Amino acid sequence: MIWRLSQNWWHGRLGRDESHGRDPDSIGMPPRPAPGCLHDTPRGFSERGATMSKRITPLPAGLCLSILAGLTHGQEAFAIPTSVVMQTVPIDAVWTADGVNAYRMDVVFDASTYPEQVSALEWTITFPDYIVFDSAAFPLPREFFFGNLQLAPISDPAYQVTSTSVSGRVGLTGSEIPNAPIGANGIAASYWFTVSLDATPGQHTFDASSVLITIYDPTFTLCGKPICVGDPESIENLPFEIVALSPADLTGPLGPGFPDGCVDAFDLGTLLGAWCSAASDPDPRGDVDPPCEACTSPNFALADISGASNVPDGCVDAFDLAKLLSQWCSVAGGNPCGTCQ
Prior knowledge:
The chain is α+β, with helices and mostly antiparallel strands and 341 residues long. The protein has helices at 2-15, 47-53, 61-72, 141-145, 265-273, 300-303, 318-326, and strands spanning 78-90, 94-97, 103-110, 117-126, 131-137, 159-162, 165-171, 185-195, 202-204, 207-216, 227-237, 240-244. The N and C termini lie far apart (88 Å).
């Protein structure tokens, strides 16, 4: 009988405040912890009640926080101030639509002036289908938050990929959550993409419209829970330019038909090897080459990139050579690769 009365008293205390008949949340008391989590005696609770609560089998602190973190995902996210910034940052300003070269985009997070403990970041970034995912690298979740930002390729569940999106996460778990630092910032992930030949030239951005940030708040002041999930008010998608593949990019280290984003010695060699012209326009190497109509080179159609009217004319001659040289861009000289226009 004594135990039953005590039990009824305790459950009544959990649900209502005896003296005022109000729910504890309405009088400024902290929300109840997850079942089985040990906690300090809340304001307004008796020591007797708190002692009885500890008869519940306690869960490890890390597991308790994990349960709470999971529960917060169902709540409405609160807005995180503009002092917290998430950016998508293309490393190269110009991306060539060659289907070969892989260009890097970094996911950069900056909460260096935010006075709260960030414990996890999650994002989904979308892009057109002619931007094709190639690979990704992440810092180890703990290392991102504690200063070691060395990137390494890792697989699911760190990231998921579709034809038009990538999703990623770095976050602390379990007992590390209360140790989340203030001022986390750095590269949360790096992605590499190629650009298909049919890409639309012009200015582009990635779209990181779905971002969630997890905050550890032991004071229960941000969202009424120790684990809060919010979306930043400041998401910046920095632009980059997609340019069409240069017609003079005939080849690369893999051979004719495999452009590499450069117009260089590989392309010049392919063009000269397919030289077919009128007798008055000899091969610059001094070779005897067939006239235009008798060209048998397998690379003839590839190398015929210009003519008297700046369009292919059935010859590989001085017009094509001039076109190639005008678009020269290589590692060794002229414009750097990837900037051919």
